[in-house]
Structure formats: C-alpha cells, structure tokens
Amino acid sequence: MSAPPTGITRTTLLKDLRLEWRSKDAVNSMLFFSLLVVVVFSFSFDPSAEESRQIAGGLIWVAFLFAAVVALNQTWAREIRNQVLDAYRVSPAPANSLFLAKTLGNFIFVSVLEALMTPLFIAFYRLRTLGPAWQLLLAALLGTWALVVNGTFFAAMSLRTRSREIMLPLLLFPISIPAVLAMVQSTTAILNGESARFWIVLLATYDVVFTTVCLLLFETVLNAE
Amino acid sequence: MTENAPAPVITVSNLIKQFGRFAALRGVTAEFSGGKLYAILGDNGAGKTTLLRTLAGLSRPSSGAVAILGASKFQDICQQVGYMAHPSLLYDEMSGIENLKYFARLYGIASPTRCAEVIRAVGLDPGLVRPVGQYSQGMRQRMSLARALLNDPKILLLDEPFSNVDLHSATGMVQLLARTRDEGKTIFLVTHQASLLEDAADEFVWMEFGKIVARSRELKRPENPGEART
Fold first, then answer.
1. Which residues of chain B does A225 touch, with a Cβ-Cβ cutoff of 8 Å?
2. ipTM surpassing 0.85, yes or no?
3. Is the CB of A23 less than 8 angstroms away from the CB of B93?
4. Cα–Cα distance between A182 and A99 in angstroms, integer?
C-alpha cells in the first residue's frame, strides 16, 4: 500500500516549507539579491514616471529571474546532501509527486519574494499602472510558474553535474526566452494601459506545454546516473 | 541448487556495471536464499556498494539481470526492500522522528506508533527533539537503520551500518539484525568490520575486482577463490 500521489506532494511540500523556515537559505539569498538590484539600478538611473513604465517590466523580471535561480539551486542541494534523494528513489512514491512538490515550493518562495519586492520597486521607480492591476497579478502568477517549472526541472537535470550553479542558468535562460519576453511585454503593456492579451495567452500556453513536458520527462531525469 | 533448497529471493545473472571504461561489476552471478544474513566483504573498490546499489534499483546494470522476490523491476517490490546507504539519507535540519514520519508517508504507513517503535528498536529515544545534524555519527547511523526498517521490509540492503559506531552500539545493532533475520527477513550487509558478524552472519561473501570470488559459512576465506558457490 502506498500513499496517494497528492498526499505525497502535500507531505513533501510541507517538509520543504519546514526546512526552508528553519534554514531560510533560499528566501534570504533571493531577498538580498533582489534588494541589491533595486537599489543599484535606482542609483544608476533617475527615470521619469513615463520612462519607469517603459523599463520597469524588464527590470523587475530580470531581477526575479536571477533571484529565482538562487532558490532553484537550493531546493535540490538539500536533497543531495546526505543523498536523501536516494531514499525517495527507493520508496514507492511517484517521481512526479516530488517534482510537483518542489515546483510548488519554489513557486511559493518566488511569490513571497515578489510580494515583498514589488512595493519597493513601486516606491523606488515611482510606478503607477495605467492598465488594470489585476492583469499584472495574472501576468505575475503565470510568469512565476513559467520560471519555476522549467527551473525546477533543469535544476534537477544539472544536479549531478560538477558545476551545477553555472549549468542551471545555461540550461534555463535560453529555454525561458519566450516566457521572459511575454512576462516583460505583458507587464510593460499593462503599466502603459495597453492590451496584454496576446502576451498573457502566450504565457499560459507556455506554462501548459512546459508543465506537461516536465511531468513526462521528470522520472527519467530523477533516475539518470 | 537441490530440489529441497529454498527458492532464492535474490538472483543475479552475469551482472556487469560499467562507469565509462571502468567496470565496477564484471559478471556477477549468484543466488541468495531468504531468511539469511549475508555479509559482503572485500577491499575498497571491489564492487560491494555498486552491487548493493544495483540491487536497490539505484544503479542500472550495463548488462545482466537482477531478480528480487521474482520481480525484475525494482519498483514492483520496493515496498519489500529497506535500504541504508553510507550517507545517512536523512535531513539534517529535522529531528529523527520528523524524518521518519516523512518517509512513513512515502510508504503509506498509517500506524502512528511505527516510527517511535523502530527508533526504540535501534536504541534511540523517539522524543529526541535535536535535529539529526546535531547527532553523533553513531546516532545518525542508528537512525538511518531505523529508516531502513520503517516499512518492515522482507529484504534489507545495508551499506556499512557499523562505520563510526562504537563497539557497544554496533553489538546492539548486530543483535537487532540477527533478530530481524530470525523473523525471516533477508539481510545483505556490506562491511569492513566482518568480525562483528562472526556469530550472526549465515554466509560471508567475498568480492574482488567486481566479482564474487568466494562464499563461506565461516569468516575464514576459503583457500581456493575458484570455489565460489553460486
């Protein structure tokens, strides 16, 4: 008898949240990194409200993308310390439950970071959206999922490589180009009061396609030697 | 094998495992009966850990076959196997009981007392709130053994369970393993401390250069390595 996959996903997610709560490894590194980006860029440029709306989308998402890589590396690092991943592999728990738990965990960590950093971006760049704010929230949710679903997958893939901290961005960034483009363009469009429908649909499609592909391939990646 | 001999629980046929150009296992063929404690001995690099990892489904054979309890796919019998590796396979930031509760969920173990039961069985206190990272190496090894016993497996695969464990605790672990064997379980144990198992092991299996070179009921290795009984 084995536990249902949803139960295992929930248990693994709660375990990861507990470990992060105790160590704060991922959240602290992400926060400091994003904070540095906000402060450094705000000192480097002094944009007007109009210019801010043009550059903020790119700035915000690039900061979140780089910060997310820190969290993504941490997630799997925990599993290879003491080879705990092997204990999961010899258990009857399905591989995809682990993948979903890790992806949801990263989604929560990056979302927390976004929730904390967005007010700072607004304050430092004097941002005011001309479009509906709820669309920004939608773009943020879809964009974050796009980042973490591929990121979690490629972090697992680079797990056994010698320089995995370098390998992850090398694998992740090229494949994330369509998603990053859609995130930046949708955010810029909403901030300027233009239609972001095309970019949001593109993001949603990207999410569905890559979530499916990652779920189909994860077991092979997990058991690779 | 005679007609009256018990059916083997583990059958390994011409098992080869290559890591690039290096062959860690070079055609291992053997049968192991149920309800026995096997001590796998050999120098570093002899292929003991690779054999154990292959049996545990963690390493795919380059060629050859492994059948455990009649199944060739490890996933079909993983509920019946307990695995303890050289590293602890435990999260350092969580306490022993928290670790075991997590793994119990992976195996669908519903009993709320099972985790405490196995922790007590290895001589530790289930009420210990310290994270595993703060345990001594010996305590960590024992907690790791508790994790391997959690699903009440029919087959136990143990890699160096006594390393860094004091003599008193190691003797306690051997007694526990002997009791587990007496309950009908099969134990595969890789060790460099064979003398600890002199009275408990049913068979000593010697490995050299990726092959089983001898099998004996006594700790003394047979003179003629060619006598390996398979």
1. 59-60
2. yes
3. yes
4. 25
